[in-house]
Amino acid sequence: MIPTIEWDGDQVRMVDQRKLPSEIEWYICRGYRDVIKAIEKMVIRGAPAIGVAAAMGLALGARSIRTKKTAAFKVRFKEIGEEMLHARPTAVNLRWAVERMIGLVEEMPGHPADEIKTSLRQESEKILAEDIEINRKMGMNGQGLIPEGATILTHCNAGSLATGGYGTALGVIRAAHERGKKIQVIADETRPWLQGLRLTAFELMEDGIPVSVIADNAAGSLMRQKRIDLVITGADRIAANGDVANKIGTYQVAVLAKTNKIPFYVAAPLSTIDPTIKTGEMIPVEQRGPEEISRFGKLELGPPGVQALNPAFDITPAKYVSAIITEKGVIKSPFRTGIRDLLRSS
Ligand code: MRU
Predict the structure, then answer these.
(1) Which residue's alpha carbon is at the smallest distance from atom 10 of ligand 1?
(2) Which of 124, 159, 304, 320 could potentially form a cystine with 170 if both were Cys, beta carbons 3.0 to 4.6 Å apart?
(3) Domain 5-135 listed as CATH 3.40.30.10
(4) Does the structural domain 138-345 have CATH classification 1.20.1260.10?
(5) Any residues with CB less than 8 A from the CB of 228 and at least 6 apart, and which?
């Protein structure tokens, strides 16, 4: 699989996900503002990948700070972190990564700025490596929930490209496949960015995992015909009570799954859980531009001036979630205590 993001000498490069799978093009970030732009414009997307990008972006930002004085360095570094936080509001992994990088600077009082800059770059590399490791553990923990021969529905792309590598929801699917289970995947195309068609199908086909893409509105009918055994998605933020923010359309899939008595699983690292948010109602949902709905690429499809609503995420209440798969174990209802206990023990 192509690396999602990596250091390339003194710059950060990421595969431009807007162009996949037809073109494999590298997007080069020389400074932290290039990273902010890449996150805003969907060059890189997916909650854990956004976290890794933010960490690397902050390491780039640190390099641009000229002062040698530690106190002044800290002030400017925090300002850069604040700017980074606004790139995309829903995925909490972004804030998690920014706080971890600022925390590192706090732990190095009195160290020369150059030393701090080196440590920040190393920390961003560590965050990338840890993310892949976490996804493999999540895969191991979740694969037991997938029966032999299962047909699995997934929404959006929660794969290698949405993370440092291996994936969350697709990591669980990969782990089941690696253990020899004969499974197949149905991928929602995921309007308007088509992450399911362009990215999930691409990743699974590369791995030789059978996959069929469906229009988003076909999922309910397939469930009613008993052609789907379970659903697995990723998450952008999970509230303390287990409510899940994920790609727009996830909520309707979860409701349909419950109505059709199909398990609905969410795979996410602990960095996606936001214990400061009590319920999903408090999670900020990003609203993107109407042109993403009314146009197809550069082609205007709607009547000129048509209005469109474009919430990028929705909230699935915990009552629709059968289990949350993490790197530390699988949490089942009641989620509030399960999440609290898991976070305390880690
Ligand atoms: O808008 P996107 O493509 O960043 O949305 C991505 C999703 O909703 C994913 O399901 C989520 O980030 C989990 S990725 C492991």
Answers:
(1) 234
(2) 159
(3) no
(4) no
(5) 151, 152, 153, 186, 219, 222, 260, 262
pTM, two decimal places: 0.97
Question: Among the atoms of ligand 1, which is closest to the Cα of residue 156?
Answer: 10
Say if residue 127's pLDDT is above 90.
Answer: yes
Q: Does the pLDDT of residue 109 top 90, yes or no?
A: no
- In angstroms, the CA 316 to CA 303 distance is 32
Pocket probe mutation, ligand 1, options 132, 246, 250, 283, max atoms within 8 Å of Cβ: 246
**pLDDT by residue (tens digit) across 27-54?**
999 999 999 999 999 999 999 999 999 9
> CATH 3.40.50.10470 occupies which residues in the chain?
138-345
pLDDT in tens, 271-297: 999 999 999 999 999 999 999 999 988
Query: What's the pLDDT at 274?
Result: 97
- With CA atoms as reference, report the closest residue to 113 among 61, 58, 71: 71
Distance 174 CA to ligand 1 centre (A): 18
Copy the structure tokens of residue 203.
């990743």
